[in-house]
Amino acid sequence: MSGPDLSNERAARDRGARFVVGVDEVGRGPWAGPVVAGAVCLRGEVPPGLNDSKKLTAKRRVALAPLIEDIAHHAIGEASVEEIDALGIRKATHLAMERAVAALGVSPDHLLIDGNDRPSWASVSCQTIVGGDGVSASIAAASVLAKTWRDRGMVILAQQYPGYGWDRNMGYGTAEHREGLKCHGVTPHHRRSFAPIRNILFPPTAQNSP
């Protein structure tokens, strides 16, 4: 099966779009850290080996990132843990995407967004694509940049808060992460609105007691 290509981008340009921007997010599911979105408008050929970031090794993503940046308008947007807790993960994800698109430096004529959830802020032509990071080169490139950026940030946080394995699990709820919570408790970078963290701070037995 072939990897992502530029067919969706070309179709949009054939309809008159000049700047076709792929958008993807990473970090919806982790218990800690921000949600991060990438926005990419490719200007050149697709880098060899580009694919959905989840199908690439960390080493390959790191190698691809500068190649993507050299041939694209690109930007990253984040929504913080505090924003995730205040808005909910869906709205926070949309906010990260909005920030990424706003930081691009070009005004998109057409958006290609991974998934089936069109954000309310999208005021231009917008196409949602389920599995888009495996189909659209722009979305795949956005996923690689977002994943590389977020992973780098989680490695830095792991140095500041050792014991949770964030440099390996990137904030996801692995056994190592759960053990870290038992030993060290909840940090400022944990998502308190997520049930596993909320239940540590407010145990269900305490909630139900008279």
TrEMBL record:
Its cofactor is Mn(2+); Mg(2+). InterPro entries: RNase_HII, RNase_HII/HIII, RNase_HII/HIII_dom, RNaseH-like_sf, RNaseH_sf. Keywords: Cytoplasm, Endonuclease, Hydrolase, Manganese, Metal-binding, Nuclease. SUPFAM superfamilies: Ribonuclease H-like. Signal peptide: none annotated. It is found in: Cytoplasm. It catalyses: Endonucleolytic cleavage to 5'-phosphomonoester. It is an enzyme of class 3 (hydrolase). GO terms for biological process: DNA replication, removal of RNA primer; mismatch repair. One of its GO terms (molecular function) is manganese ion binding. Residues 18-206 form the RNase H type-2 domain. This is Ribonuclease HII. It comes from Jannaschia aquimarina. The gene is rnhB.
